[in-house]
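The authors assume throughout that readers already know how a fold can be written as discrete tokens. For illustration, here is how one protein appears when written out as sequence plus structure tokens:
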Amino acid sequence: MSAGSQGILASFFRFVVAKRWWVVASYVLLIPPSIWFGLKVEQDNSLDRMIVQNDPDYANHKAFEKNFGSGNYVLLLAEAAEPFTPEVLQRLDRVERTLQSSPEIEVSSALSIFRGAKGGFDASPAQAEAFRRFASGTTLFREQGLVGEGFLSIPIVLSARTPKELKVRLESVDRAIAELEANLAPLTALRKVGLPYVNRYLDEETHRSSRLYFPLFGLLVLGVNLALYRSFRTLAAFVLTLAVCLTLTVGYIGLTGGLITIVSPLVLLTILVTCTATLVYIHSRFVEHPVGRSIDERQIAALLNKFTACTASLFATAAGFLGLVVSKIPPIRNMGIWVAVGLFFTWVVVFTLFPALQRILRTPTLQEKGIAGGWFQGFAERLPAFSYRWRWLLVSSSLLLCVAGAVAIFGLPGLLAPMRIATNTLDYLSHDSTLYKDTKRLEQVISGLSVTEVWLAGPVGSLTEPEVLRGINRFEEALRREKTVGAVAGPTTILRMMRYLEGSGDRFPEDPAVLAKMGADLEQLLPSQPMLQRFIEPTTLSQTHLAVISRTVDYEGFQQLDSLIRQCWKEAALAAPALAAFEVRIVGTAPLEAKISHHLVPTLVQSFGLTVLIIFGVFLLVFRNGPARMLAMIPSLVAILAMFAVMRVTGMTLNVVTILVASIVLGASENDQIHFFYHFLEKRRTGSTEESLAHALRIAGRAIFFATLINAGGFLALVFADLPPMRQFAVLSALAFLLSMVADFTALPAALWMVFHERPDGHKRGETVGNATPHDQETPR
């Protein structure tokens, strides 16, 4: 920093300190509108928020929903030793009638179909036996998973336009089954599953984790602050500064219409730990108040000394997070923007409000109170010689860790596959949760939960033509024969069901005359049959769809399923030329969610690469020394790549949360390297490598140590979350920060010795350092 710039900055800080009450008053005026906008922020943790909004498949899916509705599906699985007994059916009938009393809830179970066909159901022994014969007399119900060995299922469609409406519908379902859940007999189990329940679970657990995290982080700040500075006044200055940074950030999110999602808590977490670490750097320099110097002079000197390093680290972190804008996933892109904006607010607040609070609260210095970490003085004196002695081992070990981490994530051709990214909804649930167990049980008895919609659009009135109906049925049967397909439901499935209800059997007719009559009846039945309307667009009779149910969960699987569907359609169109006029589009929420994995890979590679380039650019501007530019990133890279090796060894998966660890750790941990190198080069102008290392460790070492504890502890607080990805993120982030700190104090000094080709000062005087002698060392450059 030039003398002129430093003079201007010193004048600014003197103004801030002199007008400290004005500064505080300015923030007091900003807080109410920030809170008001912050309260407007809504939360939606559903996984479909991760879907790429401008993706062509998403546009097709929204167009599909416009034609056929956007119902939300849940399923009740009622298990009993004898599911067709009057006692079981009576209880299920009561639940279904309660559900059907709401026009926004549609039930399509085997029992509801029987009730509608027979004009009622009274659960008498005779009616129970009639229902058993009805449900067992066709393969249709088993094909659709409505009946099976020891269970009856109740599919439910919930009409809801907003998350709030969906929450109300789910609460209605919960109330309808509350009595049955409280006393299951004669049922053995009642399981409720479906994406709406998953989304509600994620929402509730994210809320719970946030409520748990902030008190834990508050205790961490309290404990570290009191242990380090031993002052409640200092603690108050920290807490007030943190509160203002968070309030301004949340206010900005509300002002811009932001929506909190499953990854959004990481925004506030990152602001908290980064702001706290920056305050530690600034205040640790401030408390070193030499005798004979006024407190005003010392405060201005501390702010000037830490301004460049803190500014560089905050803006490098912010720019690093802006690397997430390359992601095609909106919540991740928004996360990068929000963190960058929040860190800008942090930069302004820590250099205006915090100095003002330091003076108003009269936070003590070393002259008044000692601080923890006095052992760092001896550590700083011994570490340079230690790192010199073991430099080859330390550097080679770091390189091996980097190689192991790179192999862990990218694999080794022919030996080890790259790490896969998990997008299965179940991966986001606690394996101890009832919802997870119920869903796994459902997968055992029903042929899958993933629904892929095949949307068919043809000429006006074409769906009543016999040849078209025959072709669609053959297409449906071809799909049903495929091993990867569990079940298929389409318009001809409904027509088969209607024939069965009429007593004509459940086989689809091939006779042209019968098909012609079926087509004519179809047009008349549509206005009065909601179930038919779900599969056939009633106005033009030109659009329909088939729901293909499978256990497919990953992107590659859906790509294969897409090819399979198109191949079956091609074969059906060859056998029934009338199908050639139809356009085929494959849509569905499940395939869209699987595309998250397709976009998460470039998110990891592109955003991380961009983060590296941005941070290296900051180092290029801050550090004019060539070797420093390269070496400054060693600790972060060692920590990140070693973290991926740990993931591979422990079986952790990459998912929508853990995939962000690399960018977040790099963006946050480089703060330590910037402060270390700033003070290293500060002394390097006039001192030796050993003196520069000792100086950097004395000035920044203690702050790096405690800042790392705050970073690691702050993220580790999420280990108490119930969501597995959040717990994994907590462990991995904390581990990476600790590894980065270890590399700061080992591999980084060792590499500096090797780059500058210097001996410790004791060697220059002919003294022994450790077990080495001067003859073992390189000659000075």
Notes: Confidence is low (pLDDT under 50) at residues 768-781.
